[in-house]
Specification:
Distance between the termini: 25 Å
Structural class: mainly alpha
Radius of gyration: 19 Å
Order of helices and strands: HHHHHHHHHHHH
Number of helices: 12
Strand content: under 5%
Length: about 260
């Protein structure tokens, strides 16, 4: 019975997600950002004689910089949209077990965004190859580390969408949740970068923030660029995945507590 309830909940949440215009607008924006930025940076790097495999693959996944905000907002809207419309009451009436509701929403959001990230990541990589690689650089999908970097893009975006989902359930306000999400991805890293010259603690925090974790994963196809001191100090891709899992679990746990302990 539990599995049947979960399957029905997943079907219901997928029906809701695909019926929203914002879902497909977000998907188009993510794909467009990947393709556009990949084409732009690949064109600019063709004449570079200092590019490495790691930096080249990172440029093919440059769309991640914009996509991370888009999928985070999408995850937030999946939660806050039901509160703003009042639909959450009928959802919880049809599915009284709130953890099942959260699990179904998380499953649908994670699978959709991960698939979207993979399609965008592979598409942008092959677009970049079609444009051309920098002089003296031979890169293909079978090059060690390349496949992992692209797969990690999908995992990173899925994790951010789940973090947004958790934040949405905690705050239940779209403006508040989006503001907090943007601050954590954009403003907080800037503050830490400004304070890095004053204290090493700020620098350490910066390298463990979600945005830095994404850069670490995108740059995992090869050694960091020695000319870029920031990339050279990023944590390892394995550690980045671990920290990303911690952030996702913490956000999901807070969302679960908010959904189960507070009235709808």
């Amino acid at each position: 019975m539990k599995r049947a309830g979960y399957r029905l909940a997943v079907k219901s949440e997928w029906s809701k997600l695909r019926s929203l215009r914002s879902t497909w607008v977000s998907a188009l924006l993510v794909l467009a950002s990947f393709l556009a930025l990949s084409a732009l940076f690949s064109s600019l790097s063709r004449t570079s004689s200092q590019a490495t495999i790691g930096t080249y693959v990172q440029t093919t996944q440059a769309g991640e910089l914009l996509a991370q905000f888009i999928v985070g907002v999408l995850g937030i809207l999946v939660a806050t949209g039901e509160y703003s419309s009042g639909l959450i009451r009928s959802t919880l009436t049809s599915l009284p077990k709130r953890r099942t509701v959260l699990a179904a929403k998380a499953t649908v959001v994670a699978c959709f965004v991960c698939a979207l990230g993979l399609v965008s990541g592979f598409s942008s990589f092959f677009v970049a190859l079609a444009i051309g690689t920098p002089h003296g650089l031979s890169v293909s999908i079978s090059t060690p580390g390349v496949l992992f970097a692209i797969l990690a893009t999908g995992l990173y975006l899925a994790a951010l969408a789940l973090i947004g989902l958790g934040v949405g359930f905690v705050l239940r306000s779209t403006p508040g949740a989006v503001s907090l999400f943007v601050v954590s991805l954009l403003v907080l890293p800037l503050i830490c970068a400004l304070l890095a010259s004053v204290t090493s603690v700020a620098q350490t925090i910066n390298y463990h923030l979600p945005s830095s974790l994404g850069q670490s994963l995108a740059n995992s196809a090869g050694p960091p660029d020695p000319a870029d001191p920031y990339s050279a100090k990023l944590i390892s891709p394995e550690a980045a995945l671990l920290w990303l899992a911690i952030y996702t679990a913490a956000s999901s746990a807070l969302g679960w507590l908010s959904l189960t302990r507070r009235d709808a």
